[in-house]
Amino acid sequence: MSLRTFLAIDLPSSLHLAIEQKQNQLKSVLPGINWVKSDNLHITLKFLGDTPESQIDDLRQIVEQAVKGTLSFVLTLRGFGAFPDKRAPRTLWTGIESEENVLEHLAAQVEAAVVSLGFPEEGKPFRPHLTLARIKKDHRELGQAIEKAGVLADPFIFGRLLVEQVTLFQSDLRPTGSVYTKLWAVPLAKS
């Protein structure tokens, strides 16, 4: 049997709350957007997809080995952006700032480790972000509403995050939305 999984950085409750408050403010000016539930907020390092249950322990060992020399570090969640572009967005996100591209380095370490277990390479560069909302329809109209509301120009700081571990999540797709379950976490080195 296989599980749908991904490797990510989990958020503390204080950041969940700050993001949820900002999402609630934006709901009134941006109707029709599917906001990510507070419980599902995370920073994805690598989406793995179908993962055989028999590989879960091997995956833990290889990720633990890959990140063992990486010191814990601080990220700042700031501002807004849109994928694929602001005129017809499908995803609204907040940016992630770190010193010396440490998050990109961590993602590369994780990528190299899981590829050695047979997971496919990403195929596109890692772009640090945290997804706040998904836009399923009316992309151009919502792009105009986002522009008019000045969301992408808002330098709002959600907060800072001390990254101390990498977590493997299981993702269960349900009619009411995805439900994420933590399977394990491996620590980074103490700074």
UniProtKB/TrEMBL annotation:
EC number: 3.1.4.58
Pfam families: LigT_PEase
Motif residue range(s): HXTX 2: 129-132
Motif HXTX 1: where in chain: 42-45
Record flagged with keyword Ribosomal protein: no
Catalysed transformations (reactions): a 3'-end 2',3'-cyclophospho-ribonucleotide-RNA + H2O = a 3'-end 2'-phospho-ribonucleotide-RNA + H(+)
Annotated active site: 42 (proton donor), 129 (proton acceptor)
Key words of the record: Hydrolase
Domain Phosphoesterase HXTX: 10-93, 100-180
Gene3D superfamilies found in the cross-reference section: Cyclic phosphodiesterase
Domain of life: Bacteria
InterPro entries from the UniProt entry: Cyclic_Pdiesterase, Phosphoesterase_HXTX, RNA_CPDase
Family the UniProt entry places it in: Belongs to the 2H phosphoesterase superfamily. ThpR family.
Its job: Hydrolyzes RNA 2',3'-cyclic phosphodiester to an RNA 2'-phosphomonoester.
UniProt name for this protein: RNA 2',3'-cyclic phosphodiesterase
Organism: Candidatus Nitronereus thalassa
